[in-house]
Amino acid sequence: MTANSRRKALKARLASGEIVVAPGVFDMISVRLADTMKFDCLYMTGFGTVASYLGEPDAGLATYTDMLNRVSAFCAAAQTPLVCDADTGYGGLLNVAHTIRGYERAGAAGIQLEDQEFPKKCGHTPGRRVIPLEDMVKKIRVASEAREDKDFQIIARTDARTTLGLDEALRRGEAYAKAGADVVFIESPESVEELEKIGKSFDLPLLVNIVEGGRTPQLTPAELQRLGFALAIYPSAGFLSVARALEKAYGEIKALKGTTGVEGEMMPFKDMCELMGFQAVWDFDKAHAD
C-alpha cells in the first residue's frame, strides 16, 4: 500500500462506526511484529519511542529531528497505517507547519498534536500544563492548512482535564474540531462517566488512550465503542511487556541459572530471523554465491 492509500484506509475505518484498536510501537522490532498482525492502525508512542531511541523520559527532550528519524524508519518498515506522536509540534506555528509536512512526507497516516506547554510531559503523569486555547486553535489551523493530503489525519489532544477539569477539556476539544482537527483526543478522563460524557459531546471520531496503571478506566474495545470512541490506542502495552520479559530473562542470567527456565517464554530464534527478514538475505547469498 502507498502512503496515500494507507491514509484513505485509516480515514474510512475511523468513520465506519466500528472501533479501531492500535497497539503502541516503539522500535523496529515492535513495528515489524505488529505489522504482521494485520491491525488497522499502529500508534507510534512518544514515551516508548523516546525511551528506546534516547533512553530518556518523554519530557520534551526529543527533538523534531529525533522523532522524524523514527517516523521515517517506522513507516518504511510497515504497510499498516501509522499514527505518530508529534508532541506540541516542536515550536511555534512555523514549526508546526514544518512538522506536518515532514511527518506526512515520511509516510505517516496521521499526527497527534497536544496543547501542553513546552517542555511537555507524558500523559497520565503529573505536572502537565496547557497553553491558552487560542494558541492551540492557531496550531490546529496551521496544521490543517499545511498538509498536502487531506486524508492525513490531524489528531488534536488536550491535557486540560487533569489540571482544569473535564468541562474545560470538552470546550477545548470542540474548539480544536472547529479549527480543523479530524480526531479529538481528551487525555486522561478518570471515570466511566467522564468517558460517556466525552463520547456524547462530539460528532467526529474520538480517540481514547488506554495506559495500564494510568488514570483512565480500562474498558474493553466493545465498551469503548458503545460509549462513542472510534480509536483506542494502547501505547504502553508493548514496552511494558518487553521490559518485564527482559527483567525476568536478565535476572535468570544474573542468578547464574542460564536461560533454560525462561526459554519457553521467548520467541524461537528461527521465528525472529524470519521476522527480521533474514530469509531474503539467505536467498540473496544463494543467488550470488560463487
From TrEMBL:
Single GO term (MF): oxo-acid-lyase activity
Pfam families: PEP_mutase
Lyase in keyword set: yes
The UniProt record lists the keyword Lyase: yes
Domain of life: Bacteria
Keyword line: Lyase
Name used for this protein in its record: Isocitrate lyase/PEP mutase family protein
